[in-house]
Write a structure and sequence with these properties.
Belongs to the ABC transporter superfamily. ABCC family. Conjugate transporter (TC 3.A.1.208) subfamily. By secondary structure, the chain is of the alpha/beta class. The protein has 14 helices and 14 strands. The strands form four sheets. Strands 6-7-8-4-9-10 form a six-stranded mixed sheet, with helices on both faces.
C-alpha cells in the first residue's frame, strides 16, 4: 500500500497544503507541480523498499556482530595416550558470560586402552556431557582432561588399504545419540569418504546386523537414504552410525547409547560382534548406556555417574561382586533366542566356504547366507559380498538433479500450461470468435 499510494498521497498533500496556506493555487503552479511529481514518482516508489532493505541489513549486521564477539572455541584437553580425567569439573558450553555451576565435578579416573569401557547412570546425570568432554566439546572449569590428539602428518605417509596399519593411532570417532546421516546412499554413509575395502565392508555389515535390512531394500546398499536418514527407522540410523565408526580408521570409538533404539536380541548381536568382536580389536571403545546389565560382564572398566559425580570408576569385577545387577552373559535374554542373529564371525574359513558354497540355499532370514566365501586378512575372518547386498542395476535417486533445455520454447509447454489451467474450452471459443470477427 505504501509503495502504490505513496507518490499519489505526496502530491495530494503537497497541493492541499499550498492551497490552504496561500488561499488558493494557480493552474500554472498546479500543472508544474504535477509534472515534477510525475518525475519524482519513480524515485519515491523506491523509498519503501529502501526502508525494508535497511532493516534487513541492520538485523544481518547485528547477527554478524554477535558471532564475531562470541567467545572463541578453545581445546582445553591435553595430549596423551589414553583418555583420563584428573580432578575435572566440566559443564556444557555457555555464551551468556554468566557464572556456571559444574554439571559434573570431582572426576578422577582414566579409561584403559584397547578395552571396552562403559558409562552408566540415571537419565540426565551427564553421560553425554562426559562424552562431549572427551572430544573437547565441553567447558573445563577446573582440573585436567587428557585425550589422544591425532597428528595430521599421517596423511602424507601413503598408508595403503592393503597395509596392516588400517587403524590410525590417536584418531577418534564419535557416534552421537542423534546419528548424523547424509543425504546419500547407505554405502556412502558407511564409507564416509574412505575407499571401499570389500572384506572390511562386509564384516562391518554383519557386525551391525545390517544385512537383513539391506536385503529388504530395493537397491540394496545403493539405496539413497534422504536427508537425515528419513527413510530409515531409529534403530537403523543408530546401527548405520555405528557401522561408519567401525569401518573408520579411528583407534578410539566414543559411542553414545546405541542400545536404546534397538531390540534386545539386536543389542546382544551388536555387543558380541561390533563392540567386542574382531572389528574392536586394538581399539578403545567407550560406550554410554542404560543397559548396564547387558554389557557389564564384557567390559573391563565402568564409570557409574550419580548426582553430578562418579560414584564408582574402576574395573568391572569388584562391581560385579558388590552389586546385585542381573548380568546377561548368555546367548538369550528375555526368552529370545539370539542364535538366529549371530553371524559366524569366528568360524573356520574352510568350513564356512564349504557350507555356503551352494547359492541355492541362500535365505533372506539368515544373515550367514549372505557370506559366499571367507578369507583371513590381518588375523580377521572376513567375508566377501554377494548380490544379496549389492545390485548391478542403476539405483533410483530420491532427489533428482534439475534438467534444462536450450533453444526456443516447445509447443507442448504451452499446451501443458493450458491443460493445467483447464483453459482448453475458453481457448476454443476465443479462436472461433476471432475467426468470425475476421
Amino acid at each position: 500500500m505504501s509503495w502504490i499510494a505513496g507518490p499519489i498521497l505526496f502530491a495530494a498533500i503537497t497541493l492541499s497544503t499550498i492551497s490552504i496556506y496561500e488561499g488558493g493555487i494557480s493552474p500554472s503552479t498546479t500543472f508544474t507541480a504535477l509534472a515534477i511529481f510525475q518525475r519524482l514518482e519513480g524515485t519515491l516508489s523506491i523509498v519503501p523498499g529502501l526502508v525494508t532493505d535497511f532493516f534487513d541489513a541492520w538485523v544481518s549486521f547485528d547477527r554478524i556482530e554477535q558471532f564475531l564477539f562470541s567467545p572463541e572455541r578453545t581445546d582445553t584437553t591435553v595430549d596423551a595416550e589414553l583418555i583420563a580425567f584428573e580432578g575435572a569439573c566440566i559443564a556444557w558450553p555457555s555464551d551468556e558470560g554468566i557464572p556456571r555451576q559444574p554439571t559434573l565435578h570431582s572426576l578422577d579416573f582414566k579409561f584403559p586402552r584397547n578395552e571396552l569401557s562403559i558409562i552408566a547412570g540415571p537419565t540426565g546425570v551427564g553421560k553425554s556431557l562426559l562424552l562431549a568432554a572427551m572430544i573437547g566439546e565441553a567447558d573445563l572449569l577446573s582440573g585436567t582432561i587428557r585425550r589422544p590428539r591425532l597428528d595430521l602428518s599421517f596423511q602424507g605417509q601413503g598408508i595403503e588399504l592393503s597395509s596392516k596399519q588400517w587403524i590410525i593411532p590417536k584418531a577418534i570417532s564419535f557416534v552421537a545419540q542423534t546419528p548424523w546421516i547424509e543425504g546419500a546412499s547407505l554405502r556412502d554413509n558407511i564409507l564416509f569418504g574412505l575407499p571401499l575395502s570389500e572384506s572390511r565392508y562386509t564384516l562391518v555389515l554383519q557386525a551391525c546386523a545390517l544385512i537383513q535390512d539391506i536385503a529388504a531394500m530395493e537397491d540394496r546398499d545403493k539405496t539413497e537414504l534422504g536427508a537425515h536418514g528419513i527413510s530409515l527407522s531409529g534403530g537403523q540410523r543408530s546401527r548405520l552410525a555405528l557401522a561408519r565408526a567401525l569401518y573408520s580408521r579411528a583407534e578410539v570409538l566414543i559411542i553414545d547409547d546405541i542400545f536404546s533404539s534397538v531390540d534386545a536380541h539386536v543389542g546382544r548381536h551388536l555387543l558380541d560382534h561390533a563392540l567386542t568382536g574382531d572389528l574392536a580389536k586394538d581399539r578403545t571403545l567407550i560406550v554410554a548406556t542404560h543397559h548396564i546389565e547387558l554389557c557389564l560382564s564384557r567390559a573391563s572398566f565402568v564409570v557409574m555417574l550419580n548426582k553430578g559425580t562418579a560414584d564408582y570408576a574402576g574395573e568391572t569385577e569388584p562391581l560385579l561382586r558388590e552389586t546385585d545387577i542381573l548380568v546377561d552373559d548368555r546367548g538369550t535374554q528375555d526368552g529370545l533366542d539370539h542364535s538366529e542373529y549371530e553371524a559366524p564371525l569366528h568360524t573356520d574359513s574352510a568350513q564356512s566356504s564349504a557350507s555356503l558354497s551352494d547359492d541355492s540355499s541362500i535365505s533372506l532370514n539368515d544373515p550367514r547366507s549372505f557370506a559366499s566365501s571367507s578369507q583371513k586378512e590381518n588375523g580377521i575372518n572376513v567375508y566377501t559380498c554377494t548380490d544379496k547386498i549389492r545390485t548391478n542395476t542403476e539405483a533410483k535417486r530420491l532427489i533428482q538433479e534439475e534438467q534444462h533445455q536450450s533453444g526456443r520454447t516447445k509447443f507442448y509447454v504451452y499446451t501443458e500450461y493450458l491443460r493445467a489451467a483447464s483453459a482448453w474450452p475458453w481457448v476454443y471459443w476465443v479462436i472461433v470468435v476471432t475467426l468470425l470477427v475476421g
